[in-house]
Amino acid sequence: MLKLNLQYFAADEKTEKATPKKRQDTRKKGQVPKSQDVNTGFLLLMVFGLLFLMGGSLKGTLTGMFEHTFQEYISWEVTENQVYDVFVESLLEISKVVVPIMGIAIVAGVTSNLLQVGVMFTGEPLKMDLKKIDPIQGAKKIFSARALVELVKSLLKITVVGTITFSIIWMNKETMMEVSQMSIDGALAFFGRTTILMGLASALALLLLSVLDYSYQKYDHEKNIRMSKKDIKDEHKNIEGDPQIKSKIKEKQRQMAASRMMSEVPEADVVITNPTHFAIAVKYDEEKFDAPYVVAKGVDFLALKIKEVAKAHEIVTVENRPLARALYQKSDIDQPIDEEFYKAVAEILAYVYRIQKKV
């Protein structure tokens, strides 16, 4: 008994790699290895890269808008039309700054997801699931090993980003102390360069950390989708079909085929028998085939049924043991007989036609 229990637990232990079908099913549910740090790092890199390349142009757009505001708008009369014009023109100028940043952010988000999971559309994560608001399950997640890993990751990211930003500020502390002596343009340029430098450095650091995080996410995903030997067997049964069910389906198909075959027996010209073990119903229709063809055949019980139907419909039965056995083995239903049987079958048909006074 103990040995059987041990075998059961061994079969149920998740030790096997996930099958392609298992991977496909989990992907349909939206369960794929993915690191949010890849998205964050790539997003920061793209946005601060845009600011590095277009910062001067964006700054010029904003300062130009403010100059126009204090030089032109301030002297306008406050009317409904004037307020509308100010709103529209200001919105257009702000859009010149916001749209490129929002656009590059969207491109970065889509690209980072495509790099990790490829093209995937699924609504499974959006479905209502009461387990997601289960306080017991929530507590288990909070105090789980995964939660501890996420905490360590967060602390590591805060430490790395904090160290980078502090180092950059520390390296520029002397210039920062002299900002009060600079012009507005000089101060803005300094803070802009420093901010972009901190952003790019932090983005690169997060991307390096994301490589480790993605490796962990992939390992954790593979661990979660592992299968037991029993799972693989069950999946194989579901794909191929349960042997008992397949056997029943085949039996049902045989019964249906036999039923269709029996319906063709009344149309036969002759039934050639063994006489007890084999029965082959043969018909000749020159419009269908150039040679006689088999409309039904059977052995033992099925042969008996064929002979009963033939008798009920007054179909001539001819006993020819070697011919009956050979036709059963070498002929297919609704197919012409082989050439080697032409002469023997022709003689039998001639005999039948004479009996029925067809010739």
TrEMBL record:
Signal peptide: none annotated. The keyword Mitochondrion does not apply. Keywords: Bacterial flagellum biogenesis, Bacterial flagellum protein export, Cell membrane, Cell projection, Cilium, Flagellum, Membrane, Protein transport, Transmembrane, Transmembrane helix, Transport. It is a multi-pass membrane protein. Residues 15-34 are annotated as: Disordered. The chain crosses the membrane at residues 38-58, 97-122, 143-170, 190-216. The keyword Manganese does not apply. Gene3D superfamilies: 6.10.250.2080, secretion proteins EscU (3.40.1690.10). It comes from the Bacteria. It is found in: Cell membrane. InterPro entries: FlhB (IPR006136), T3SS_substrate_exporter (IPR006135), T3SS_substrate_exporter_C (IPR029025). Its main location: membrane. Belongs to the type III secretion exporter family. Required for formation of the rod structure in the basal body of the flagellar apparatus. Together with FliI and FliH, may constitute the export apparatus of flagellin. This is Flagellar biosynthetic protein FlhB. It comes from Halobacillus salinarum.
